[in-house]
Amino acid sequence: MALTFNAAWGNEDVEAILGILEKYNVQVSFFCVGDFVRQFPDSVKAIAGKGHEVQNHSEKHPHVDKMTGEEIVADARTCEARIEALTGVKPSLYRAPYGEYPSHLVEAMEQAGYLSIKWDIDSLDWKDPPASEMTQKVLGKVRPGSIVLFHVGKQNTVEALPGIIEGIQKLGYEICMVSELVYKDGYSIDNLGIQHQNS
Predict the structure, then answer these.
(1) Which residues of the chain have pLDDT under 50?
(2) Which of 12, 154, 171, 191 is deepest in the core (most CB within 10 A)?
(3) Under 8 Å CB-to-CB from 91, ≥6 apart: which residues?
(4) Domain boundaries of the chain, sorted by first residue
(5) Tens digits of per-residue pLDDT, 40-78?
């Protein structure tokens, strides 16, 4: 299963998150908005430098369900260029803002060389719940192949993270990056974020 962090605005807890991940020897996926990459290049370099993957979360965090496939791809390409220029690695995974996954987005991004990645467990850290509540929510839903959604810059994520990682490991799961989790060949992803074997 995989832990993922959306990074769109503040970077105030990036250093603390990276420290926790290093303590537990866990590699995760950060989905970064282009504006975040532009504003906080040192944080993005630190993320990549610790061996985590930096993936595409759009350039401006738009409502993609109101955009054409061409507009979505153009927006993502701008973010892609920022990430590649900074880290030397071209992103291959895309996470749409607001959890909006119209079918034309999935198709357009696939043609652009991306897998569109959603999640099946929302930590709800964006609602600032207590760390204990966040931990119970995540651990109560973990299953093989789960992708957990967190956000950089939220109130209690840093406090909750050690207990969540320890709990996941006690349940016998290996935490990996999303690129290591998804099937690349012979599978497709629908607009609910679910992979299906191609017939």
Answers:
(1) none
(2) 154
(3) 53, 54, 55, 56, 79, 80, 83, 84, 114
(4) 2-197
(5) 999 999 999 999 999 999 999 999 999 999 999 999 999
